Amino acid sequence: HGIQVERDKLNKYGRPLLGCTIKPKLGLSAKNYGRAVYECLRGGLDFTKDDENVNSQPFMRWRDRFLFCAEAIYKAQAE
Predict the structure, then answer these.
(1) Which residues contact 26 (CB under 8 A, 6 or more apart)?
(2) Hey, where are the domains in the chain?
């Protein structure tokens, strides 16, 4: 693995890959987490990173976070 594998997956070449880490521990709801993912991807970022382990917070269940994130990715890819 390495940068070339990631570039191949994203089909992005000739420029730096841009990403960000979203911090749901700060109280972000699952729905707003999905909105942040969507806005990041539509705004030109190549990827986002979830700052949490695969676990749930009292204010945001992991499964809900996953579903809103998947919806955001599919929506951004379709536009």
Answers:
(1) none
(2) 14-78
Sign of the torsion formed by the C-alpha atoms of 1, 78, 52 and 67: negative
Structure tokens of 33?
Answer: 């987490």
- The tokens describing 24, both together, are 């749901």
What does each of the 79 residues of the chain score in pLDDT, given as a tens digit? Answer: 789 999 999 999 999 999 999 887 777 889 999 999 999 999 999 999 887 677 787 888 889 999 999 999 999 999 9
